[in-house]
Amino acid sequence: MPAMSSEARAIALLALAAFVSASAFRICDPMLPQLAAEFGTSTGQAARVVTAFAVAYGVLQMFFGPVGDRYGKYRVVSVATVACALGSAGAVLAPSLDMLVLCRAVSGAAGAGIVPLSMAWIGDNVPYERRQATLARFLTGTILGMSAGQLAGGLFADTVGWRWAFAALVVGYLVVGVLLHLEVRRQRAAGFAQVDPNAVRQGFVGQARLVLGTPWARIVLATVFIEGLLVFGALAFAPSYLHERFDISLTAAGALVAVYAVGGLIYTVVAGRILKRLGERGLAVAGGLVLGVAFLSYLLGPVWMWSLLASVLAGFGYYLLHATLQTNATQMVPSARGTAVAWFASCLFMGQAAGVALAGAVVDEIGAAALFGGSAILLPLLGAFFARALKARPKPSTP
């Protein structure tokens, strides 16, 4: 970029796009009981609106990664953001649960081009020595977006109705999309390169083979899939669980889980110091342990106030583990970074989709205790596994 001010502006706009995208992902969680009541189905069946978004989001990562490498990451993010508005507009008007699920899938498919390509753009344009701090700042958009989605979903469901939540998303997507388009025009006027010539030569299949042919990349991708399954499968049902167990409103339940963002923000503030003290392996182990304590707190807390602590711990523990995975993802295949990060995000959100589907079945057939207890046991084991894998990994390459 020609100047730091231009770089900062470009990254701030990407963070705004990530905010709206993350809001869309979590906005349905607290409204599941209302959707189930309106469409005459179970909460587990209503959760298809979450699963459809996550599946489409995850699958289309594999498409958007090479497209971003080939046609320009920033340009593709701007187009994807506007396309998300169309899916959300359809959700506003959806006459049935099946149509709502379809519209959510459209939004998820378009949204697949936002966060991973934003991360890859940062990887391309921010020097390695500043990249981790820059990614942490970018993460604030995602963290706050997830929190805002949880809160807004419950608030709209309890007041004017769930359809207005999607109307708010339409406005957000359109505003950010226009701002991103203007930034693309500024970059072109400044003569900033939009396309990676190596990506054009390699082609879509060649880039995918390069990523999947890297052993370390396969370990990172498998780990982030399981992480998404265990963390977000349980979190998707946390608002409904708190609503039913403690007889609190959907707004309150959504707000309690939204405190997750506080834990994430705490991570962004202390990330550098913790990394210096614990190292990457220590972060992975600590993240798994903190997540285990968080889900035990959801399960065993005697009063609803315990869920405040649980949510903060869940956010902090998740980013301890996930940021370690994410940093490795931006460097695991530097020559096809857009594709590599897209596969990383794809595996994360496919894990979330599988987790929500599995969690819905567990809640309907067994109960929430098995859901939260399972995550509490398995997440510390996952953190320990990745810490051990880090010890044996090849030395990261730098651009």
Structure commentary:
It is a single chain. The protein is mostly helical. It has helices at residues 4-26, 32-39, 43-46, 48-71, 73-93, 97-111, 115-125, 128-158, 163-189, 197-212, 215-235, 238-246, 250-258, 260-300, 306-331, 337-365, 368-392. The protein has a single domain (4-392), classed as Growth Hormone, Chain: A, CATH 1.20.1250. It is built from 17 helices and no strands. Helix 1 packs antiparallel against helix 7, helix 4 runs parallel beside helix 6 (97-111) and helix 14 (260-300) crosses helix 15. The protein is globular. The protein starts with a helix and ends in a 7-residue tail after the last helix. The mean pLDDT is 85. It comes from Achromobacter spanius. The chain crosses the membrane at residues 48-67, 74-93, 99-123, 135-156, 162-182, 219-242, 248-270, 282-298, 304-321, 341-363, 369-390. It is found in: Cell membrane.
